[in-house]
Amino acid sequence: MRLAVAAAAFSLIAAAHAQDYPKRPVTMIVPFAAGGTSDVIARVVAEEMTKSLGQPIVIENVAGAGGSTALARAARAEADGYTIAIGNAGTSAATYTIYPKLPFTPESFVPIAVVAKTFGIIALRKDFPAKNLQDFIAYAKKNPGKVNLGHAGAGSSNFLICKSFAQAAGIEVTLVGYRGAAPALTDAIGGQIDGVCDSAASVSQAIDDKLVRGVVVGSTVRLATLPDLPTSAEAGLPDFEAQGWNGLFAPKGTPAAIIAKLNAAAKAAVESEAVKKRFHDLSTVAPDANEHASEVLGQLVTRDVEKYRKLLEEKK
User: Fold this and answer.
1) What's this model's pTM, rounded to 2 decimal places?
2) DSSP 260-306
């Protein structure tokens, strides 16, 4: 009886807390350095979510270990809705295979919402000898292990783009990890590395400005912002698929009513004209109408944990 009364009292307190939420700024942890895909998407979405929540969302960049440093920080946070994190297929699914002794599991988080869908691109330094994808694959096969491609760290979605691409192309390349997509791209522009595996959101402008040369996008259709960049099928590599996602998560135990408020704010944000326009410019798309529920994000995590376990264990 006492337990039932205590549980009822706790539920009432939690409901009252959720009704007043948020009373102060919310921190959104981004698991990479500023300037990369997750960071850019987080800032675009957070700015619009602020309008619904009535409180600012403060971005906190926590780079390191392919995003697992940031997710560990998020998992330890108070489950009160004032600390959330943005994740992707790398940080929230593949990381469990890459780093099997992490201090958190998928169950350490509650999914809030899918906020973006992204497309992976392979881009080369502008003076690389290969001019198209087939030339690049041929070059890499003649020079096994000598071509180096940068990514945002083992466990990042960009790392998975690299792994998926190398497997589909049947090539051996050297993968170079950075503390985010932006520093990797900077080195590709400067010629310190041969190219990058990156999301269209962070690399499309550099391609458009001819600072790097895009050779393929892992999508079924061409991107409106990069109409000359061939899809994987058009470029002769149909097995290369690199369509990813970004989602928001909260620590386990965050009250359902607060998750619902955050989900509603995220939905309103990605449906806004401001975010749609910015996403278009970033070669990114918002989730479909049937993808807004928090359960959809949970299903993506479950699917991709298994998907990337198979991909990564095949290469061990």
Assistant:
1) 0.88
2) HHHHHHHHHHHHSHHHHHHHHHTT-BPPPGGG-SHHHHHHHHHHHHH
- In this prediction, residue 210 carries a pLDDT of 97
| Helix (H) or strand (E) segment spanning residue 251 | strand 243-251
Instruction: Give the pLDDT confidence of 109-157 residue by residue, as tens digits.
Output: 999 999 999 999 999 999 999 999 999 999 999 999 999 999 999 888 9
Any idea which fold 119-235 has?
A: D-Maltodextrin-Binding Protein; domain 2 (3.40.190)
Whether 24-117+244-312 shares its CATH topology with 119-235 is answered yes
Output 51-54 pairs: Cβ under 8 A, ≥24 positions apart. Answer: 51/268, 51/269, 52/264, 52/265, 52/268, 52/269, 53/22, 53/26, 53/261, 53/262, 53/265, 54/22
Q: Which residues pair with 251 in a beta bridge?
A: 109
Joined tokens for residue 194? 């041969």
- 3-state SS class at 230: coil
Q: Using one digit for the tens of pLDDT, what is the confidence trace for 83-120?
A: 999 999 999 999 999 999 999 999 999 999 999 999 99
The pLDDT of residue 82 is above 50 = yes
Q: Could you give the 3-state DSSP secondary structure of residue 174?
A: strand
Neighbours of 96 (CB within 10 A): 20
The CATH number given to 24-117+244-312 is 3.40.190.150
Return the axis-axis angle of helices 37-53 and 273-281, rounded to nearest 10°. 170
State the Cα–Cα distance between residues 260 and 14, nearest whole angstrom.
13
